[in-house]
Amino acid sequence: MNSLATQQRSFYCHLPSWLVGVISAALLLHGPIAQLPHYHEFADQSVWCGLSHAADVLSNGGFALVALWGMWRLWPVRTHPAIKAGWCAYRLFLVSLFLTAFGSGFYHLAPDNARLLWDRLPIALAFAGLLAAVRAETVVTASIDTVRQRRDVIGFVMFAVISVAWWFFTDRQGAGDLRFYLLLQGLPLILIPLWQTLYGAASADRIAFAAALAVYVLAKLAEIHDHELAHALHAISGHTLKHLLATLAAAILVRRLVMRTRVLANAGSSATSATSVF
Length: 278
What we know:
Elements: H1 2-30, E1 47-48, E2 51-52, H2 54-58, H3 61-74, H4 87-109, H5 113-137, H6 146-172, H7 179-198, H8 203-224, H9 226-233, H10 238-277
Antiparallel strand pairs: 1-2
């Protein structure tokens, strides 16, 4: 029985790696995935104080606000046991989120592929940080290997940079290939729930991360239906809504990290009070 349980445990622990391998192989066999030909033709044509595409540009401000809020609340408690294991990667996530506000704003001022590079690069790094953070708190924490944690951060960062560089390089050759970039965006939807389930993450963490990922999926759907939503809603385009929903997803994650430190701090205070009574 023990042998069977060990085999089952080994199977489930390797399941994320196998899924990534299968998906990667499928993408390689599929061949290049080109960017949509009219990608830069966004529905938002608003002008505010001479600012073109004002709604798409200004809606990126939320990313910077969430990143600053996260740094303000989490930096002083970065060595707290609740976030220490993943802090290096969460810091990357927050910095990349802040840079996304400027990179995406810069791109939407005058959308083209040259500017799109500075939009996609910080987004890719934010995903890299998020993946490395959750892996550090689940898979790597199980072995308490800090060297491996740092190595994972570097590895995810390298993959993020390569995914965007590959698209940019192939685009300069006349056929941009988004396979690696799309893989990076899809990995959190698969790996984060799996890692948290397999390694017994707190239910509050699983709920918060699942909610954030669900909101991000809604954001991507809003992006795809940019013009349809602009026509239906009139006041806001799908791509502007995408920025707001993605900001909400990031805020859900940051709030959960803040709540982690507060919950443990309150538990510690209660324990101290109980000890003093006796």
